[in-house]
Amino acid sequence: MITMTRDLDIPGSQSTPAIQSSWPAGRLTMQGDSYPENSYELFDQVVEWVRRFLDDEERPLHLSLGLVYLNTSSVKAMMDIFDLLEEAHGNGREVAVEWYYDPRNERIAELADEFREDCSYPFAITPATTPA
User: Fold this and answer.
1) Does residue 5 carry a pLDDT above 80?
2) Rounded Cα–Cα distance for residues 22 and 62 (Å)
3) Separation of first and last alpha carbons in the chain
4) Three-class DSSP labels, 65-85
């Protein structure tokens, strides 16, 4: 059986995050603002990638996030992704999230912390360092 391992490489825009995945590395990265006109169109493929990776692989999955702003439908999509990770973690899978945020944007750190409260897997919220 041949497993489809198509990676995501979705360029960011003013209202959508840049999204890249690496199947071989077990990594999903999202950076930028997320208030797309149709968040389901954007995030369905991300949720499906995560689901497929967790179903097809035994390796760890790591999410690296640099999300700056999320609208309500983007928050819902992220909750769906975090729920998949929680289920996998409950089944013994190694999963982790690292959310980098601008220290001047306390609001996104608070949102990340709200997500983390519902997760039992490693979920780090880290101030991003910017070069001087």
Assistant:
1) no
2) 10
3) 50
4) EEEEEECHHHHHHHHHHHHHH
